[in-house]
């Protein structure tokens, strides 16, 4: 809100949704009229309209990584799972959930 220059007007009207409740649930119940949340979380909630992401310069990106323990009982199965996650089937499902895949550009 500060970067947008609207803190004074918006912060007093804001409500932080705490606990195990998603912002989408608060929207559906009428508890709030407008919500900001990760796209992947918003897309899970039927009954709301996702209007789009914040402008790129306001984004806070999360990077999810995977690793196999050096003490894994079955490291080959973990490697196969990682290969599946980069398959076209998994990539399509991941993108439909609202999560952006990393760019293949260096």
For the biggest sheet, the summary is: none
Rg from C-alpha positions?
Answer: 18 Å
What is the count of DSSP helices, taking H or I runs of 4+ residues?
5
Q: Please state the overall shape, judged from the principal axes of the Cα atoms.
A: elongated
Helix content: 25-40%
Low-confidence stretches: none
Instruction: Write down how many β-strands occur, each being a DSSP E stretch of 2 or more residues.
Output: 0
Q: H/E series, N to C?
A: HHHHH
Q: Total domains, how many?
A: 2
N- and C-termini, Cα separation: 32 Å
Percentage of residues in strands: under 5%
The class by helix and strand makeup works out as mainly alpha
Q: What is the averaged pLDDT score? A: 87
Output the keywords.
single chain; mainly alpha
Overview of the molecule:
This protein has 106 residues and is mostly helical. It has two domains: 47 residues, no CATH class; 37 residues, no CATH class. Helices cover 33% and strands 0% of the residues. It contains five helices and no strands. It is elongated and about 55 Å long. The model has no long low-confidence stretch (mean pLDDT 87).
Brief summary:
The protein is about 35% helix and about 0% strand. It is an all-alpha fold.
